[in-house]
Amino acid sequence: MNIVIHGAEFINKGAEAMILTVADALGKKVEDSRFLIRLPKIYFQEAKRFGLVPVWCSAADSPLHHRFCNKIINSMMYLKCRAVVDIGGYQFGDPWGLKRMKNIIKASARHRRLGHLVVFMPQAWGPFTGPGWKEGVEALLDASDLCFVRDKVSMREVEKLIGTNHPKIHFAHDIAWTFKGAPLEIGQSILDQKGAFNERNRICVTPNYRVYERTNGKDADNQYIRFLVSIINYVCTVHHSQVVLLGHEFFKDKRLPDDRTLCNLILSCLDSSLPVKHIDQDLSAPEIKSVIGNCDWLLSSRYHALIAALSQNIPVISLGWSHKYEELMKAVGLDDCSLSLQESNDMVQKKITSVFARTDSLKQVIENNSVLIKQSAEGCLVRAANYIRSGC
User: Fold this and answer.
1) The overall pTM is greater than 0.90
2) Collapsing DSSP states into helix, strand and coil, what is residue 88?
């Protein structure tokens, strides 16, 4: 039974975590299932490594005969397809534009005409302002079988357009809550190789190149970079912490900037005597989670890095850019553990000192709240598997 995974690749490690979670969970519940994913050829080895079947996805500017071959390959794949599972984490709303939604609706409708089931796993939705969104959401639901929304703000945004209790819309927390990382020994080995020995309070920092792009200034003068540098200086000198810089997005083409670019930029702005290490190799999603699992705190602008920590009962400080970060922190009871670029250095330092002092109590809060969250994520996967297996 062919199941096609859409909406993710192996560049972003949060997306990779969702790919592996879907393949593992559905593979156990749907007999004789085989998971296909469209990728550039450069990422075929990653897919095969995890037992997935990669299908060539050529760039739009490829030679005509390449595009023709690609259409034939994809057509053969879709003819034998049972279901399409879209795991895009955030793709419908003002930040992405109506055109993106229309393209996804067009593809989903084509799958439905071929008799494929179309399932959208939990993601953030909205905000929806301006004309066209109501018709867009309604068309997307017409072109799908199941759609999951992963936070309360997103659900309210959807319900403003289509009303409550729509039979195809369901609430569920992000499936990455159930993602299994590599054994902690692997993460510790990676840290040891970089000289990040656990002799002090260890804080993992995962920056986000998308936030850098949205922030004023370039290179060391960028507001986001200055903000992170100030925090790292503070936790190293005042709280005697060790900092581990860890990317969450890696391009194989070294000419393209990614999270490692930011980590190197941050390093260049710090005194070399500070206990700061950069894990600069291209790690897998399971390895990323294992590294985070060996840290005492996580400061992150990466949504799925936050989940990787929280699902292991590790306290976090969030520095986000959309409502999905606020909703995640509310769900786990860490409302006051978020930072904003608009806050003064004095306010940020006071907040960090306060949350560090409550490490043990915050761990208990996370543990208490994450039980139902994980059950919700697991329930989503079970529901999706049952629907694909039986068609209802």
Assistant:
1) yes
2) coil
